[in-house]
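Tutorial, part two.
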Amino acid sequence: MRLLRSALLLTAACWPLAAVAQTAPTAQVAVKPIAFTQRVLPNGLRVYAIRDTGTPNVSVQVWYDVGSKDDPKGKSGFAHMFEHLMFKSTRNLVSEQMDRLTEDVGGYNNASTNDDYTNYYEVVPANHLQRLLFAEADRMASLVVEPKSFASERDVVKEELRQSTLARPYGKLFSLYYPALAYQAHPYARGTIGSLENLEAAGIDDVRAFHATYYRPDNAVLVVSGNFDQRQLDGWIDSYFAKIKKPVGAIPRVTVAEPARAKAISRTVYEPNTPLPAVLISYHIPADRDADIPALSVLKAVLATGESSRLYESVVYRQQLAQSADAMLDSKQSTGNLAVYAIMAGGKSAADGEAALKREIGRLRDAPVTAAELAEAKNEILTQSIQSRETAEGKASTLAASVIIDGDPHAADRQLAEIARVTAADVQRVARKYLAEAQSATIRYLPLASKPNGAAATPIEIAQTVRVADLTAPANITVVTPASEAERIQPPAPGTQVAATIPQPTETRLANGMRLITVERHDLPIVTAYLVTSGGAATDPANRAGASAMAAGLLTKGTRTRSATQIARQVEGLGGAISSDAASDGASVDVTVKADQLAPALAILADVAINPAFDPAEIERARTQQIDAVALALKNPAQLAALVADRAVLGTSPYGAPIDGTPASLKALTRADITRAYATSFRPDQATLIMVGDVTTARAKSLAEAQFAGWKAAAAATRPIPPIAYPSPRVIVVDMPEAGQAGVVVARPTIARSDSRYYPLAVANTVLGGGFSSRLNQEIRIKRGLAYGASSGLDAGKTQGTVAARTQTKNPTAAEVVTLIAAEMARMGSAPVPPGELDTRKAVLIGGFGRTIETTSGVAAILGAYVQNGVPLGELQRFTGAVGSVDPAAAQAAAAALLDPKAASIVVVGDAKQFIEPLRKAYPKVEVIPETAVNLDTAALK
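Running the prediction step on this input gives:
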């Protein structure tokens, strides 16, 4: 997948604030640079270590200096496909053993392919570090490439391409068309995901040659970050990596220089499954190591970071031309791009969007940004940088990217120090230098149905002038085969476990009944303030779905004393971001800021929660935006399948209605509906303020009393939600002829979060579909290559719950996937889970919990969910033990009662003609609903 490197920055400095009402000034925070050691092994491997004894985990990352720009001629997508093969067998590791070494012990692993690099990264409990170093060294030195796994992973990558590029609205725009038009010579023109034809062209000998050419120690960076002993780490690295031989031949390098664009270019394409027109404009920028990148980073933040950014304020908010508008600073080892884009609002044209985007680019060229905009942009970058340092993984990624992209481990610190010195004149200078009209490449991406008869589109193809080299295989490539059982070297045993520190919340109440929960964490100068309430979307009246979501969304769109623009500018001037949302059983508003800006940020949070204006003009603006957002969701097979499944499972219950509403319900909402929804959820006796981070309990209470003590409860309380009458299961096909892939969901009712069976069911669900090694993913992806991934999720709320298994697959295999899901759900209750398998799935839950509580926002989110679901705060300390105590009998009993597919509804959204007959053979009562006839406002769905 493509990673856009826009804010991998760290700092020891901070900047002055934009103008904002605030309390007495406090001392500004000081952020230390990442402390690391470095060395280079004799074979050329660059090694970096970041020690942090405050975490029980460790992150191991290996980044290779090879990406999609290095794909051989005629084989685009090759580097990405090879990434998948690195998880198969080595001389000493059996296929998928990397998952056994990570996920099965409570960690996780993943990888990504960028234009310039491919990175492999794991997070595990610290006592498993030696085992991961052994495994990474083994797959660097002795990867086994054999026909079966090669064919299987190629099929998986095809499904990934269908899912991310063909089935998702605008997938082609970002994955294929944007890079193809941006480059005329450089191989960056080829999309990372490749094409179906190029994937078919790849052969097994090509794979072996690719590994021998690029996967070598002198082309790699190893970063270890977390809790370890430095001397022990050095010994392990010497033992496993130092013995890997450095090949004799030189590493091929792309030396193509992209010529400067001297004349604007544009293309218009018409594509299926495009609910709204879109436009994207890109401009070349220099390599990431260039001295102009800091000024361009600030320019991008001014242009597109937050709701006070120029694009949002102008194109989305004031002119209401676009449903969304954004920018990305896509910097690389060589020529990159600044891209701006807009998904248009209903009834607006791509031409409108193009003109608006170019006006905003012109403003940057024509006049300096304001002092307030400059300060805000710098503070936003600083806050993002602090957040990136909350975990061992984040620190490792930042350092590794600096080495691979810039060739300098200090690049992140250097860039951010330079950002601190950027002036308004610098921003205008780089806008004039790089963003001239003649330097633009414009794509107008239009719905196929809007194509005039006889009109000729202007196809976007990779230019014939793009220079791509053939892969020349090194001489005498060793074909590695798996070691025999007698010869196989097993990974070393785990070390002594490092105990995790579970956050300890403290609680008090204000006189008006509002709860205050504080968790002190003083390792980084950052605080998350999270206000949660009860009520939520389940209290929305019939045919008024979306009322609570609209009310929550409008909190930040104006109060009695602040306009929407003022709220955005003030919060973002502090370097923070404020958001509000509604869930089934409650609503929330939150902000994360540097610790020195907590007081002014909390004043704004209190104002939006207590004094929303619900201005009629803002309601209409929000209504239009939400209708457009729903239209986008309804064209995505996976999202539509999930929405239909909720209705099928929960019927006429308010839990079955879409939280964000439907086009019909949103149009019907009145201001009275919205204010009623607000009053139902937002009252102090139903509210809890959670503060997590660099704040003391005493200061948290003082700040809370200063801002919330005057909040009084209205007369009305939350309306009781009637018991749910679950309907009979259904099998539903939504026929979407333009779908590039089918979305499949098998869902059924379960239990509330407070039910005593919650932990056995959570463990059983994780066996079924939690993680890469779950049964669903094993059967659907790993064994058969039918999907990029398959999973199941348990949503246990305050009064009810659902469990849903889901995946996306090519249309012809949708019926087969349904059969596999149902079979695995039934198998869960028919026999006990073997103890070894059960232990690995419990580790998945415990490990995920441990990683979540590493961040302030993660702790706040867990506590907020406890509050909304009526769960005691002590659950935070009880979680690990409760999961660990689940035995095979308890898991089987929960699965038999609550995962049985006989009680499940089945939903498939896709091109029905490609799968309806086998599905009808298995389920004769299947209902087929054309996508244009789907009605989510009724339980009948039509």
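Residues 1-27 have pLDDT under 50 and may be disordered. In part three we will examine how such features are distributed along the chain.
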